[in-house]
Structure formats: C-alpha cells, structure tokens
Specification:
Strand content: under 5%
Number of strands: 4
Radius of gyration: 20 Å
Strand order of the largest sheet: 1-2
Mean pLDDT: 90
Helix content: 40-55%
Distance between the termini: 44 Å
Shape: globular
Number of helices: 14
C-alpha cells in the first residue's frame, strides 16, 4: 500500500530548496515534481477490484488524471459512470459508496461534477437530482445536508445552487431568500464564516458565498469589496504562512482563496512564488503525491488538492468540463 506515513527528512528539505516549477501538462516535465510518480500514485486505485472505490476517490481521479495531461480510457470512463448510477438512490441523491444508503448534498455535488468532467450528462437521472435538491430547500432560503440533517448551512446552499446551475434549473431557487441567507454569514472583516454570528471568516466559505451570489446574479459591489478586503489580509495573498500547526487545510484553503479572487478579478494579487514555496513543503518525492499535513504521507485527496493548486496558479491546465444539459 502506497498511502503510508513518512517523515520528511533533511535531504528532501534540501532538494525542495532547489525546486523550480515550470509549466507542465504531462508526467515528468516539471523540475523536481515527478508527475510520472504522481500519476502512478493516483492510478493505484485502478488496480483495485472495486475501482473507483468510492465517491471521493472517483472525484479525485476524474480531476487529477486530465489535470496531468493524461486521458481516462473509455473502459474506465464507463466503469465510473456505471458506479455513479449505482450510487444514485431512490430519492435522487447520491451516497459516498455502495455500502451507504443515505444520500447527501455533498456527494450529489461530487456526482454532478464527476459526470461533467466525463461528459456524461445522460449517465444518470438528472430530473431526480433536481427533485432531490429541491427536497432539501428550507424556508430560510438555505439548503440542508440530507433528509436526516435538514438544517441550512452555507456549504450545502453553495452545493445546491451549484448543482441547479449545472442542471440549468436555477428557477428552483428563491433568489431573494437564498441571497439573504448567504449574506447572513458575512463577518465584520469582509469574509464569510461557517456559522452565522460565530467563529471567523475563512477562504472556503468566502468562496462559497461569492460563487453562490454570482450564480444567482446577486453579487453586489459592497460584498465584492468587503471580500477583497478580507482576502488581502490572509496568508493566501500575503504569503505569510504559519506552518507551526503542520498546515492542515492550508493547500485547500489556498485553492479556495484563488478561486474567490478570480471571481473578484483579483487573482494577480497572489504571490505565486510564495504559493509555490508553500506547496513544495507538502510534496512527497517518495511517491510523487502531496500530504495533507507536514510530516504525513500522501493521500489521494491531498494530492488532488496539490494538483488543483497547480492549476489555479497556472502550472497545470484546468480539466475540461462539459454541460450536463443545454442552456
């Protein structure tokens, strides 16, 4: 099994100091990033009899393989589409794997994105997906996680709007209520938090809010200016990263910060050399993957986040997405 915990040694640290990214779309074409190893690491799941194993790994796979400039074979494409069909439940939503029977907004969003990457809009029942999302709409304008956890959250509201946008079904959304719900997560610093009137802003929830408001055609200048003010003060723009805690979610948050800044037409504020230097610290030369926390080995999900970050800073090409329905 390749997914093992390892400790970064001084030799690796020295090698990383010499690391220089170059634009690359295929294995082995970026200095000191061995994309051949990265590809082998991500393709390990192809050897499993239950490939693609689960929704999260399938989501990682359909993004990572084309991001590295490689193709998903027709045979594996069919296997993944058939797997998606098997995960769609009677209520129209999707589960994490074949064992689970409880569908959720999160995994339904994953399924929609997988089908979009595979250009497989006819692979599942899209009308049932639309009905499932509608069933999780609440009176406050937000959306819940599942039929068992119906309380509205910002993340699930983002997923719902994203799914309905993919299905050309934004007419299902009560725009005024949903916009008011989303704006309720705004913080004094200009960003958006996970819980209303509590906690603190972060890049992920700020992106969720901006993306949702933009999709609904309700992203106003005040919200944009406030969000930009927040993002400018984060390490994702300044490059003043704090790695003392091992850096959990640091790479993922950097991805969301860049995606948010792109909505604000301000991605050029990010110091890409500092982003690159930060990402180097999570690279594991042993197998070509990226770890989620400093001192830990690679995982498929954290490796996909590493590749997403390379895409966001222009070192890799964004994988193609295809519309599920005509707009």
């Amino acid at each position: 099994m390749k997914y093992i915990r390892i400790i970064l040694c001084s030799v690796l640290s020295t090698a990383l100091c010499l690391f220089v990214f170059t634009r690359a779309v295929h294995a082995g074409t970026a200095a000191n990033i061995d994309f051949k190893k990265t590809s082998e690491f991500m393709r390990e799941m192809e050897t499993r009899p239950d490939f693609p194993v689960g929704m999260v790994l399938a989501h990682d796979y359909v993004y990572s393989i084309p991001a590295m400039g490689e193709k998903i074979t027709p045979e594996r494409r069919k296997i993944i589409i058939d797997f998606m069909k098997s995960l769609q439940q009677q209520d129209g939503g999707f589960t994490a794997d074949k064992v689970s029977k409880d569908s959720s907004m999160l995994y339904t969003n994953h399924a929609v994105e997988i089908l979009s990457y595979l250009n497989a809009g006819n692979g599942v029942d899209l009308n049932r997906i639309r009905s499932y999302v509608a069933s999780l709409k609440n009176a406050d304008g937000g959306y819940g996680f599942s039929l068992k956890a119906k309380n509205s959250t910002l993340a699930n509201t983002y997923y719902a709007v994203h799914i309905l946008d993919e299905l050309n079904a934004l007419s299902e959304v009560d725009r005024a209520k949903t916009v008011a719900f989303v704006k309720g997560f705004a913080r004094k610093d200009g960003g958006f938090g996970y819980v209303k009137n509590q906690a603190f802003s972060n890049a992920q929830n700020t992106y969720f809010a901006l993306s949702t408001l933009k999709a609904l055609g309700m992203l106003d200048n005040d919200t944009k200016n406030n969000a930009l003010r927040f993002l400018k003060g984060t390490p994702y723009v300044t490059g003043a990263y704090n790695l003392k805690d091992g850096g959990p979610q640091l790479v993922e948050e950097q991805v969301y910060a860049l995606k948010a800044l792109k909505i604000l037409n301000a991605a050029d504020l990010v110091k890409k050399d500092k982003v690159t230097a930060m990402l180097k610290k999570f690279y594991i030369s042993f197998n070509g993957g990226f770890g989620p926390i400093l001192g830990f080995g690679s995982t498929p999900d954290s490796t996909t986040n590493g590749l997403r970050l390379l895409v966001e800073i222009g070192k890799l090409k964004e994988p193609a997405r295809f519309p599920l329905v005509k707009k």
